[in-house]
Protein 1
Amino acid sequence: MRKVAIVSWATTQFVKDSKLNVFELGCEACAKILHSTDFDKQDLDAVLLSSCTTEQYSSTIISEMLGLSPKVSQRVDNLCNSGTNAVANAYSLIASEMCELALVVGAEKADSTGNKLLWDITRGSFMFPVHWAAIFAKAHMRKYGTTEEQMAMIAVKNRKNATKNPNALFRTAVTIEQVMNSRKVADPVKLLDCSAPCDGASAVLLASDRIAGRMTDNPVWIKGIGQKTTSASFANSTNDLTTIESAKSAARDAYEMSHLGPESIDVAEVHDAFTILEILAMEDLGFQEKGGKIRRNGGIKVNPRGGILGCGHPVGATGVAQVAEIASQLSGKAGGSQVSGCKHGLVHNLAAAGSSATVIIMGR
């Protein structure tokens, strides 16, 4: 089985209303890769689009707009977990030797009708993601004594990190007091505990070990992938409201495949669509014990680009942007948010109350 590397990546600026359609957004990110990476477009074997758009034949439309004629053209739709699903699919195409070179692009409009999971009647009248975030937060508070201030600290950290990211939706830091005093949306979750939908796109180029060295002097290797889907409905997503079972399962598989453990991870992109989710992620990934006791001495940097809270949440693009960020960190090209000396990174990407999860481990 071939080894697979990420050899190029690009992310657009995330904005509230770009005036571009989903195809134009996707092409903007892809064009940056095509213009900055030395390869023949005819050698590109696969184009995978991660998006919740309801537009049909969308990956093939983007391929034509870019002047590409790939062997494989697919759209991947798994709500907020779409991007890392697309990367996992591209990895599989290359590792199985069906393809040598694959372009993954995530693109989304904030108002995409496909962003909503209307099928799940178990949510009753509580249809918005903030409702299940509030349930997770209350359960964690009851069992482990987690406080609203601890949740607010996540927002403060990630919004501060986002000030160094020119592509972030939010470029202004916030204080604990501002988070605590922001409007309560669903007790105990406040407005500044929540991420914001937006427009944006991100793309990554994956290559086999046979050609990766020709395209870059510093490939970033995908070392482990874990995925798990427990359900589509909130009612069946977890038996314990203080953890995300799909993420724990995906993490176990990714660690096993990579022959690494949580102690080896230097930098992580975790799915912080709500502040409580970063707390759960730190526990589910083995970075800290339940209830907040840190297992390491601050050696891991989490969401240095600003996370979803700081960068915004263009649903289909989020997972791809997370992968692009870790590739950027491991190659030493993350600019003002660069984590010094990082060798291994991790991406943690969820969807729909954590009913599905992907964990990807990458290394220099």
Protein 2
Amino acid sequence: MLIKLTHEHLPIISDYIEQFHDDVIYLMKPVELFATGDAKGVFYGAIENNQLLGLFYFSNKSVLAFHTLSPKVLGSLDFLKSIKAHKPKFIKANQAMIDGVYKLICRAVSEITESKSTLMYYEGGPTPIDSLEGFDLISGKHALVDELLGDLKFFIDVESHFGRQSKAINDIVKTFKAMIEEENYLLVVKDREMVAQGLIEDETEKMGILSGIYVSPKYRKLGLGERVSRELTSRLVSRDKRAVLFVKNNNSNARRLYEKIGYKSIKQYAVLTISY
């Protein structure tokens, strides 16, 4: 039976995360926030004899991230009921978990699409970073931020590239202004034009995930994607944290780039996109 987890369950949650480290990447940041009382969603657990057999996190952004090695839990009516109750738009887990839940949720949804990806860890040393003449890297508070946000085409292109629904203009400005002012977000600018970006998300005490690496079409094949990736990786390494990323299985160019930098493939993951 799935039960809602509280702070009294933190010891067994922490043990679970430590035990299944590579399989629970999507759960690490939510668990860290849960421990500080700042969780942006709700946790459920399958507990038997004071042992956690599965961990399920329904975020406030309609995402379910989960892990369990128990076929009984994975196929349980309680799990199906929780999905029906929370109606997540996205379900994220390693490939084995996604394969296990696929048939179960077919009974609760009208359409499912699957995106497969590979979890990669950075296993190199300090990352050599070359400068790119004519391009500026902006991170943190910068005098150009307000001017750059006056032209939202770049950010709209980013949203479209990653398959996200376009936000209202005010929401785009608010979101990206907050991101630009953080040291974990990087913009590449040429002659006051935004041409590339990347960020570190879900950073915990031990790791951070590279994400959102994007280069405008007319500036591709100039090394900007590699430059951004190396810079963000270097920031995590300098903080004594593991650099992690996910690359879609059909993006062989990106995989070769990350392997060149020093990333190694670890495990298969997948994301289900759900329509009810």
Protein 3
Amino acid sequence: MQEKQEKSNRPDWGKLFLDALSCPGKISEAYSVFHEYSLGNAILAALQLTARGLQLSPIASFNKWKQLGRCVQKGQKAIALVMPVTVKAKSKDEDERGAANAEVDANTQAKGSGRTIFILKNNWFALSQTEGAEYAHEVVIPEWDKAQALSVLEITEGHFNLTDGNTQGYAVPNEKRLAINPLAAMPWKTLFHEMAHCLMHSKETQMADGNVLPRDIKEAEAESVAYLCCATLGLPGLDESRGYIQGWLGSKERSDEFGKKSAARVFSAANKILKAGTEAARAGEVCNEQ
């Protein structure tokens, strides 16, 4: 019963990514207002508020707004964000019975005698859902710094030494090393793509990316990270990324596979890249999701 309830409360990362894919403009707006939250939670909050016809504005818990001299308007419903929750570990007998069907996914982490799962919790209200004392809020868009991001993530950028002009960039994930073609059409998008390879595919020895990407799940993952980063920072290249990703996710079978195995990892990698290049990362801000 508990396991069934846990699954029903878990975020649908695949759906969230498809939603983000269909409204790229909302990602940048969400990051501007909710940049102190993880990328996944920022998009999640923005989509929920937009669906209710509410303005994107700062969010806080019921009690936090009360501390700030504001109260939640009557009839307003809380929005849900992804939060870590530690639950009691199964007994040894239960573990043995379930060993054959055990599944380790991106939403579950082992932790001591318990385990930490990520679930949706309805606990936040937007400023536009409250009333009371004046609340001054200044929207500050964090600047992303490439050198800082590479340093924080311990990724090295080297000299591009391939003679194939069609190769936009390449990564050596097992060494956390990358190189971008000086003549790359969109070097920023290629950079995010190669950084994603370094974070997500650490067992690979080399991955080179040209103008036409191979139809491989690892490439779809890296390009999805590039899409989220470009959309968040308001950079060009979204049409090219979206075209490839939508082509790869064309069949229901592939879309389901991506949703189950890759979507959460994609949000995690994009979030790490964005946070690593901002002042928030320098201050050691803790993300709200994996």
Protein 4
Amino acid sequence: MRRLILFALLLALVLLPAAPAAAQQELNVYNWTDYIDPHVLEGFQQETGIRIRYDVYDSLETLEGKMSAGHSGYDIIVPSSEPTFARLVRAGALLPLDRERIPNWRNLDPRLMQRVAKADPGNRHGAIYLWGTVGLGFRPDKVRELAPDAPTDSLDLLLKPENAARLARCGLAVMDSAMDVLPTVLHWLGKDPDTTQAADLRAAEQALLAIRPHLRAIPGSGALMDMLATGEICMALTYSGDVIQAAARAREAGRGVELAYLAPKTGAHLWFDMLAIPADAPHPEAAHAFINYLLRPEVMAAITSKVRYPNAVPASRPLVTEAVREDPNVYPPEEVMAHAFLPGTLPASGERARGRMWNRFKSGR
């Protein structure tokens, strides 16, 4: 009898439905293209058991479009401090960070964090991930060949129509980002980068339309980086790190493509990309853990060594690969930083005016 009872109990246990497995923790990240060391993602997953779903974009316009639709499903986004991050802060679209969950916050450079406090009073919603400038990537050999007397220390190299006309044969490009290009062009013209005055915007539009016939492409930053690296184009107005990455790829390919980067001597457009958590993030605890992980000096050093953009964790710098650490295009000297400008956030009417202007520039009319 006891054997029958025992058999019945075992049979009942076998037939019981299995208890559901604990749901695997997840983290959904939306970041720029080619903007992290894959080993960093692997290390976080191995250390925490949190599985990462990683998506990419190549313009702030794309990120804003995704966020404006609501319920993006992302836990971490990386908007530039101005204007995207600032707008998201003001719209209440970001979760205030719980610094008790981010003990590595103390590793951040307070001087750089102060720079972005205008967009985020009290630095409540974001930590600096990487940063850089907007300038020209170009091939010195092609400039010497086609326009030997053109200046290589000024945006005149591209924005003066006579120079663009001479260099057009080797391929010119401007990245497809009104948010980043227009402040640079306005500053080059001696205008306020944040102006919404119709006359100033017309001047910027005329300057861009004057070089439009000489441009081969107006691509996203990812495509533009490839075009520089392969020698398809010889000059582009884009992000500093994209040029430095393209130069490294070109050297590795051994095709004789050598690239230089020019930060405007009169003042470069400075930008900061921020680690932020959407207000409706499905996994905010995992997002906090990821930010804390990224702010470790050794982790940020690995990212900067890979993507060649500077970070905001000073203790990481001695750990960065020497060639990257000592490159003044990666870590600009103090005089460049002193003259650099950080654009502000425009009113909606100003953004619409710039958007219409940018569309006219892209279409060439």
